[in-house]
Fold this sequence. Notes:
Blueprint: E1 2-7, H1 14-25, E2 31-35, H2 40-47, E3 54-57, H3 64-78, E4 84-89, H4 111-121, E5 125-128
Helix pairs in contact: 1-2, 3-4
Amino acid sequence: xxxxCITGPRTIRPEHISVIQEKLNSISPDTWHIGDAPGVDTxxxxxxxxxxxxxxxxxxxxxxxxxxxxxxxxxxxxxxxPGSYKLLAFPNKPCPEGVQPKPTFHGSGSGxxxxxxxxxxxxxxxxxxxxxxxxxxxxxxxxxxxQLSLF
Length: 151
C-alpha cells in the first residue's frame, strides 16, 4: 500500500498546472493526503476529485503555526496507514537556511520546505518537481537514519 502526501506553494503560474497534473497522473497511490491551500493543493484536489481515497486537511486558524499544524497533521495521519509513504513536492523557491529534517515542523517561512524536511525525517520517499529551478539542500542527498527499538 502506498500513501502519498502533496505539498507545494500557494502561488503558481498557469504553465505549472500541466506539470503538476502530469506528476499526479504518473503515480497511483492507495491514499492521497492534501492540504486545503490555494495553488498546488487546489490543483491536486480538483485533479483527483474523482478518487475515493483523498483526505483533505483543513487549516484551523490564520496564524503561521496553524498552517504548520495542518501540514504536521497531514504527515502524521498519512503514517497511520500501513505500507510505504511518499511525498510529492513542488517547491518554487530555494530551501530557507536553517531548515533541516526534524521531528517537529520548521519551515522558516516555507510550508513546502517545512513539509519536505518533516517527511525526510520520517523516512518518506520524496519526489521533488521544481516549479522554478533551484538547488536541492544538502540534507536531501543524505540517507535518513532512524534509531531502532529492540522492544
